[in-house]
Design a protein that fits this description.
By secondary structure, the chain is mainly alpha-helical. The protein has helices spanning 2-5, 9-16, 22-40, 47-58, 64-74, 128-141, 155-158, 160-168, 185-198, 208-224, and strands at 112-114, 148-151, 172-175. Helices cover 49% and strands 5% of the residues. α3 packs across α5 (64-74) and α4 packs across α5.
């Protein structure tokens, strides 16, 4: 090997016996952390989330650039989500304007709610009853909440019954504009992350019960363990 690489034997053994620098030791420690967390979270952590995990759990102060570099050297990366356009096409007879205006920041809990409907294999039908029951559950879990309520222009959200439900609960309605999925960006992003992580590496669910259990467990993880910047 030394002959092929053109390296002198003496130089090789000198390098082998060298004292490792602080940078070398730090990089080796970081590489160990990256391997550990990549395995622990089923290869779903990108470099930003990897940085947050290691810094908070191990009391470190690595920056994104350094973690990205070491992950690249190790050949470790998260599952890549394919970019796709998926949203409800809004009709012209909607009942509300885009009052949220992509201002997703909130100064207090329950100031703004965003919602959407998505489909999974073995999922139930997407109908008014599903949306109405979900809304009632949210209201019951947050008594006294009067948020700005934002959705796309799906037929469930434009129905007179649902509009009345919002008014009865003192909520102002807001809707995304035509062909503007980004108007409800956090909700669209949530679905993308959920599906990416529960279906990673071609994971399949044989029954609806198995899928429901996976979704419930992931939402528990998202709410209580998955770090957010």
């Amino acid at each position: 090997m030394l002959e092929i690489l053109g390296v002198k034997r003496a130089n090789y053994y000198k390098w082998l016996r060298r004292n490792k620098s602080e940078r070398d030791l730090e990089n080796e420690e970081l590489a160990d952390f990256i391997r550990k967390y990549d395995e622990k979270f089923n290869h779903t952590l990108g470099y930003r989330m990897m940085t947050d995990r290691i810094n908070r759990d191990e009391n470190k102060n690595y920056n994104d650039k350094k973690v990205y570099k070491v992950m690249k050297i190790l050949g470790i990366k998260s599952i890549i989500r394919p970019k796709r356009r998926s949203c409800t096409v809004r009709k012209s007879n909607n009942t509300a304007k885009n009052n949220l205006k992509r201002d997703f920041n909130a100064s207090r809990p329950n100031e703004k709610w965003v919602t959407d409907v998505t489909e999974f294999k073995y999922g139930k039908n997407n109908d008014n009853k599903l949306v109405f029951n979900t809304f009632r559950s949210a209201v019951d879990a947050n008594p006294g909440a009067h948020p700005l309520f934002h959705s796309d222009g799906g037929y469930q959200y434009t129905s007179p019954i649902f509009v009345r439900m919002l008014k009865d609960n003192g909520m102002e309605q807001s809707m995304s504009r035509v062909h503007c999925c980004i108007d409800n960006g956090p909700m669209e992003g949530f679905w993308g992350i959920l599906k990416c992580e529960i279906y990673h590496y071609g994971k399949k669910y044989e029954t609806r019960e198995e899928l429901e259990e996976a979704i419930i467990e992931w939402i528990r993880y998202y709410s209580h363990e998955r770090y957010q910047r």
